[in-house]
Each structure stands twice: as structure tokens, then as C-alpha cells.
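Let us begin with a simple case.
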Amino acid sequence: MQSLAEIRKELSEARARMDQIFSLFTQETLYERPIPERHRVIFYVGHVEAFDWNQICRWTLGQSSFHSTFDTLFEAGIDPEVGSQQADTPSDWPSMTEVRRYNLKAREAVDRALEEAPEPIVRMAIEHRWMHAETTAYILHHAPRAGKKQPSGSQATEGRSPQHRFIDIPQGRVTLGRREGFGWDNEFGEHQVDVPAFAMSQYKVTNQQYRQFVEEGGAIPPFWVKRDEQWWLKTMFDEIPLPNHWPVYVSLIDARAYADWAGLSLPTEAQFHRAAYGKLAGSEQVYPWGQASPNGVQGNFNFQHWDPVSVTAYSQGNSAFGISQLVGNGWEWTITPFRPFEGFQPYATYPGYSSRFFDDDHFIVKGGSPTTASSLLRRSFRNWFRQGYPHAHVGFRCVRNT
């Protein structure tokens, strides 16, 4: 159980991070759509506050709405098929002044309600806000350079080059899911899975490795640009010569194509868990590096950097088997479709959080990106995207099944 002071502190930190990210968009860009399939940025400005108000004050504590139109307008995001386009225009959305007025009232109401609100609902609101900090960060990445402001301390660095190799992972049993404590609905249903021996690449696939695939006809990653026969990378706030040793970010479709081209495979969710949290003997670890909290910084997450770093960085965060960066520096695709565990029960106040994505198009990603909050790095946390979704900070590594 967290104290009320601890809850208020974490909520304040999450709010401050979201406020910072929104401040990096120019006023004009707030009404644009950097990712065609998603809402305009203005939706997210109102969404995080509407979510808190709806979940905590309206649906849990039964408080009367002070702006029912905005409660509904900003209630839920969208997840259309990749390549689709939305039909709304900037004029369809309320002014920033109106949205900020609504947000202020929502925050004040939530702050007054924290003493009586159930802790799991407040925890849900805080983690939802951290999720949207990450979503908004990669939307910011897709915004044109003229449409955003560069903060201080955001310069990218290349880092040490890797010596690529595969590491043998012995057979073992992994724990998927959880039984108790806070988690999202798809995390529950703890169970054991036996994983046969396999080998996994020590590092995520890098830009340098993927470039050879591109030169032989592979799909070009979304953040790459070719100019004057040289490859450049769109970083969060700039364009730089393609860093060879950073992880490449691609869709699952393209990651699978690379693995097929290389004569390899992508890991399952269970294989990821075995490599990340398993040991030669004894119980599984809480994090790849052991039991210690991620607040000590064992990787590129929690906004340590806006962009990736070399796949060789943060070696103190390696798993017990010596696999690098299984948490941080980019989510990692698995070939496990997003499905519920046995006994799945949706949250009463958020029944569609997971269930509407249980299909053959959404797949599990594990680990974390540079802008993933520490609280989302728990072993049971499951993220997911459509297999063709190319916009998020998701990379991959390969396995060799034995």
C-alpha cells in the first residue's frame, strides 16, 4: 500500500512529464496529426485528464459531470488499421483555452477525491498517464522539426560497437502473468510455461545489421531517410548520420522479414521471459539485472534519453545469461499474439482496455523504450501493437531454436 503522500507525489510527477511533452509541440502542431492513424495531438491534451476524471470521480465515486461533452469527446483513443486516415479537421476540435479550462477543473476534482478513491483505480490513472507520456513522445518524434521545440540535454551519442553473438539459453520454466498486486487486466492469470533450450542474440538488431537487409531489398524503417547516397536517422529533435550501433525500430512485419532473410526467428513471449528473468538455477528474477529497483538506472528508460543509445550501453543491466538491454532502449517484438490468460476478467470501469485487441493482428511487445516509466517495467507487464504498426519505438532481436 502506498501512502497518500506517495500517491500524490507520483501523480504530480506523471502530470509534470506529460505537461513537459505537450509544451514541446508548437501551438500549430497541437492541432495536427503527426501519425495519420491516430488522433490529432489536441485529443491527448484532453484525454489524460478526462480519463482521470472519468475513472476516479464519475465512474468510481459517482460525481456529477461538469462538462459531459468533453467527458465523452476525450474518453477513448482509436486504433484503426495501419494506413487509414481520419476525416476530422482542426476546426472540429475545441480551442486550447477551453481544453485547458476543462483540464484544470478535472485535476482539481481528482485531487480532492484522492483521499476516498480506491488505490487500484488511482494506480490505474497514474500508469495510464505514464503510458500516454510514452505515446505522446513517439507522436512528437513523428512531428516535423519545425513543429516542435528541442529541450536542453537531448543530444544523441553513438556509443561502443557490439561484437554480435548468440547466447545459449538452457531449457527452463517461466512464470507468465501475476496473481496479486496491481496490474492491468491482461496481466492476471499467473501460470507456468516450460521453455525448451534456444539461443538468443546478445543484442537487439542494430541499424548497421538492418542496413544490409535494406540494401538487398528489405523495407526501409520509418525513421530512416536517404540523402545523397547516405542514410540519415530522424531522432526525436534532429537528423543525424545513421548511428550504426543503435537498435533499429520497425514493425513486426518487417522484423519477421529480416529474421526470415537471416535464417532466424523472433522470440515468443515465453522465450523473452526465460532470457530476461530466468537463471541457471533458482527462482526467476524481478528484473533482468536482479531484484533491485529500476530507479537505480540499469538501462535507457524513464526518460534517461529521448533517443536510443548503443546496444552495448548499460551492461550492468544484462540478464543472468548475459543478454543485453532486455528492458529499455526499445520495446521488443515477440511472435506471440495478444491473448488473455486463463481466467481473464476485465476491469469494471475499463472493460475494453485489453479485450478489444484480442485478435490475430495485435502482438505482444516486451521490455521498454527510452520513454517508458519505471513503474511499467514489472515482469508481468504486457504491451502490444498491430503487427504492421511502424510508429512506436519497437525493435527486435532474433533467436535460433535448437
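The second case is a distinct protein. As before, the sequence precedes its C-alpha cells.
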Amino acid sequence: MPTIANKEIGPIGYGLMGLTWRPQVTPDSQAFPVLRTALAQGSNFWNAGEFYGNAPVHVQNLELINRYFTAHPADAEKVVLSVKGGIDLATLHPKGDAESVRKSIDNVLKILDGKKFLDIFECARVDPAVPVEETIAVLAEYVKAGKIGGIGLSEVSANTIRRAHAVHPIAAVEVEVSLWARDIFTSKFGGVAETCAELGIPVVAYSPLGRGFLTGKLRREEIPEGDFRRGMERFQEGAFERNYRVVEGLQKVADRKGCSMAQLAIGWVVKMAERQVIVPIPGATTEERVRENTEVVGLTEEDMREIEEIVGKVEIVGGRYNKYAEGHLMA
């Protein structure tokens, strides 16, 4: 079993973003059974965000967590909770200065209200105006005081990981990893995966399903107004259709394996985790999808070679985000 922040977790975690960061927040009557199902399926590493909600407050994700553990207090000790913060809630711009970091952590702790210990506080992005050493030094104070269990980073370069880790051990590094986002395994970004493996830092793989694209069930015209994917380059008209060729190729492998496209995509990340600790955190808003996502499909080396050949033939069109957000990736 992999460990994060010195606690055992299942091979597949759960991302809570989709429950609240959408035009219509998922009601508790639906969200609570989904969370309980995730835990029952062994997905006890939960990834949340201070800003995973709708304007102007943005904190609906944390409020949901508070209500859940108020209703199910016995589950608190079973879950390893990581919360992203360090973001200006008005502008969603990274804020890594001491005052802003303390404000963010204190706000997270206030909303959780002791219902759940904060196992990891994670800087959502690196503030380009503040040396990462200064940000980590503030977080280290909270670890020493016992207010948080560990420190996480998200979308950081290998150099930033090393600089941060030299100040205080990093509990986890979160980055987008999927069949159409394999940057951390390439030299393009300075070997993020290799650096994490060398330093013994688990990788948390968000969006292993490409924000629904790799399920093979998403259609561009079905993305609702207000959905943040509408602003992402890979989902724009023309790019979406060209990128869909990778799904068409991979569907043949899924059919042969007798699994869904989602299971194949997550299975690929799980197979990559045989080389180092990588924990995919697919999100889902229904119990059925949680069960599907947590049914591990074993892939052979032959399967992996076939997948690599298919993916290698398709040039993915568009960045992972938009022009503004791309500037904060792998910083």
C-alpha cells in the first residue's frame, strides 16, 4: 500500500473538485453517498481545494467536507485529506507571501472546524513573486505546531521541488497525469517524475481521465455553459475533434480488454505507479462512476506498448489550460 504523510492510502484516490466547482453544486443528498462509496472502495486519499466553489465565496468544497464529517465523524480517521490553497479567492491568483499563506491555512482550518485534521496543505500554484523557500518556511511552522500534517505542491518544476524539499520534506507533488498529459515523464519539464522518485515524494495524478475527455463519452456540445472546460484550449472547436483520434484508437484496446475507456485510462496511471508512487485521483459525482473508476484493470507490458504506439501517433492540439493559466504550470 502506498503512503502519503506517513499514512496508508489506497492505490486510487478521489478528487472532490467536481462536486462543487461547477455551475450547479452537487447536493449533500447525492454527494454524501458518493463520498461514502469512495471510502468503501478503498479511495481514502481525498483531494480538495479552498477555492473549489463558485464565486464570490469559492469555499463550497470545504463546507461540504465539514458537513460530511459532521454527519459521519467516524470516517475522519479513515481519510487522508489534502487541501489546495494559497490562492487569492477574489482573483484566483497564486499568493505565496507569508501573510497570504497564513490567511489561507487559517481559513481552511476555520471552515473544517476540527471535524477533520488537515493532513496536507498544498500550494495550488507557485507565486512567481515570492521565492518558494519563503512559502515553505511558513508552512513548516504549521507542521511543527501540529496544525497540519504535511506540505504539498502542485504543478511545479523539478528545480522548485528540490528547493522546497531542502527547506522541509514535501509530502506530495500534484500534477496532471493522463494519457494526454504525460509531461512529467519527459525531459521537457526537467524530469519531474524522476526527481520525485529520487526524493521519495509521491505523485498525485489529477485529471487522469482528461477532465472526462478520456472516458470516450464526452461530446463538446454537451459541455454546459459556465463549465471551466469551455475556456481550455483542448476543448475548443477543431482541437476537440482532432484530439478525439486518441480516444478512437484507445477504445480498441479497451474493447479487447473488456473494460471501459475510463478504466483503461486509470489503469495506465496505476501501471505507471509500479515504477514509483503515483496515485490517480479521478473525480466522480455518482456512486456508479466511483465504482467504475476504482475497479483496477491490469495492463500487461504488451498492452502498455500498444497504448504507447497509439498515443504516440496523435499530436494533442492545444495547451492543458488557457494562455493565462499555462503560465503557472511547472513553475
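The chain has one domain: 3-213+262-296. The beta strands are 3-4, 7-8, 14-15, 45-49, 80-85, 120-123, 151-154, 172-176, 203-206, 278-280.
Keep these points in mind for the review questions at the end of the chapter.
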